[in-house]
Amino acid sequence: MASTLSFFDAVRNRRSIYKLDGTSPISDGRIEEIVRQAIQDVPSSFNSQSTRILVLLKEDHEKFWNIVMDCLRAIVPKESWPKTENRISGFRAAYGSVLFYEDPEVILKLQEQYAIYADRFPQWAEHTSGMHQYAIWTALEAEGLGVNLQHYNPLPDQRAAEVWNVPQAWQLKAQLVFGSYGPGVREKLPEKSQKPLEQRLFVYGR
Ligand SMILES: Cc1cc2nc3c(=O)[nH]c(=O)nc-3n(C[C@H](O)[C@H](O)[C@H](O)COP(=O)(O)O)c2cc1C
């Protein structure tokens, strides 16, 4: 649980957990507190604070995944539909979702202000979003929730903007799905597969 996990314990504890149910081991208030703290303390490029977050719980979470389901039904070939339906139903069965947006207006202003870096800001906004995603993913798992990260954008963007009064210009980047998981689920996760560290980490000047 959160208070007893060191930072690196929490980093190690974070996994993708898909078998989630519609309950939460922590209160809605605590979930909101975690997201609030992340949005306040996670850094952004040029301190742009371009990330916008929507937390959808219970019926609103279900509504979001129904929207995704409807969007996919319109485009997925019939023969693949059962698999797709099953996957989306799994996400819908969870407790909540965190939707990560970036506000392009903030990015545009930075591009005007710092023309020399204009072409970099969109990429840095992706980094900023990723940092928020990772912080919240890790924090929710540290509190005992199971979490997985999805990318069904831009399919549901328009409808979601209408339903939750999100400015149409905001760009949806990712969806974090969370909920409780049953006994044994974590133990049955596949081992973390690791490519050799020597191909990935290089230290000089020791
Ligand atoms: C940037 C990024 C994008 C990802 N996108 C998806 C995704 O769209 N759907 C999904 O099921 N998992 C997604 N994942 C989860 C990874 O597949 C997963 O983290 C990786 O296989 C390691 O497994 P673990 O999370 O259990 O440690 C994503 C992870 C990252 C970091």
UniProtKB/TrEMBL annotation:
Keyword line: Cytoplasm, Nucleus, Oxidoreductase
GO MF annotation: an example: oxidoreductase activity
All residue ranges annotated as the Nitroreductase domain in the record: 11-179
CDD domains in the cross-refs: Frm2-like
GO biological process terms, semicolon-separated: cellular response to oxidative stress
GO cellular component, as recorded: cytoplasm; nucleus
InterPro entries: Frm2/Hbn1, Nitroreductase, Nitroreductase-like
Pfam families per record: Nitroreductase (PF00881)
Subcellular locations according to the entry: Cytoplasm; Nucleus
Top-rank taxon: Eukaryota
Family membership: Belongs to the nitroreductase family.
Protein name: Nitroreductase domain-containing protein
